[in-house]
Specification:
CATH class of chain A: Alpha Beta
Radius of gyration of chain A: 18 Å
Number of strands of chain A: 5
Helix content of chain A: 25-40%
CATH architecture of chain A: Roll
Oligomer: homodimer
Largest interface: A-B, 30 and 30 residues
Largest sheet of chain A: 5 strands, antiparallel
Number of helices of chain A: 4
CATH topology of chain A: Thiol Ester Dehydrase, Chain A
Distance between the termini of chain A: 19 Å
Shape of chain A: elongated
């Protein structure tokens, strides 16, 4: 996570991942390819749909989180390298849980994502590595929580 | 779910959602837009990465599940309408949990998705509606489980 080793990541740390603007074009493009439900594709159909408004596929909101998570890590790693430090490699994730889409994301919305460290532990099964637990959230331009999930990511200990 | 009302959905029912072929082009296109990590973008970098092979973004595998879930529902609803029946509207999902990516999905892989009903219950808080719980899985062409998550979906009772 952002190039830090397990020892350097403290519970409560909040990482601002940046903001994503959802255009109508991008919402339609994603939905056409991966989630062609009428309320993601057509404004008239969406008015009669479950949210009453055209909304982004939940997987679009999640994928945009990933985009900004990756960019945030890459920015942090470049900064560490510029300081002459060796960033920790970002490990894969064994999985995510409690994905929730709390409010529709609609054309013109800007969602700001953040990731909060909720805990960490060493892995007895994998010496030199630990798990970092995070709460990931996306807020729209009105400050409303629209998306959240709990993640965990394999993170190396600092080499001896 | 596939146009059925809460009363018609029995625990243990397995719905075959169909298969998705992951081309290298589609893997790169998704990763470029939403998950630009080197092991999703470049074969040489992927060889040194956590999986040793170029792999699809986990969100790509999840989004392809959605595509086939939607198509499966639309096929089932069309069939019910052709029989003169009124399909149950597919309700939104309050969330998913335990998303796991168990093996990498690589260029040329074909993932077959299925959804198994693991339970259902009526909602006291929302008369006329219930929740259907599902286990969703994706298997590659070697029969290996590559992706799974537990879903729940709001499902209406049959109108009186």
């Amino acid at each position: 996570m952002i190039g830090l080793y397990l020892e350097e990541i403290e519970e409560g740390r909040v990482v601002d991942l940046g903001s994503h603007h959802f255009t109508k074009e991008a919402i339609l493009a994603f939905a056409t390819q991966y989630d062609p439900q009428p309320f993601h594709l057509d404004e008239e159909a969406a008015r009669k749909g479950p949210f009453g408004v055209l909304s982004a596929s939940g997987w679009h909101t999640a994928s945009a989180w990933m985009k900004h998570y990756v960019a945030s890590n890459q920015r942090a790693e470049a900064k560490l390298r510029a300081e002459g430090r060796v960033p920790a490699p970002v490990g894969p994730s064994p999985g995510f849980t409690n994905l929730r889409w709390l409010k529709p994301v609609t054309p013109g919305d800007t969602v700001t994502y953040r990731s909060t460290v909720t805990g960490k532990r060493e892995l007895k099964s994998r010496p030199g590595w630990g798990l970092v637990f995070t709460l990931n959230e996306g807020f729209n331009q009105r400050g409303e929580l629209v998306f959240s999930f709990e993640g965990k990511v394999l993170t190396p200990r600092r080499p001896a």
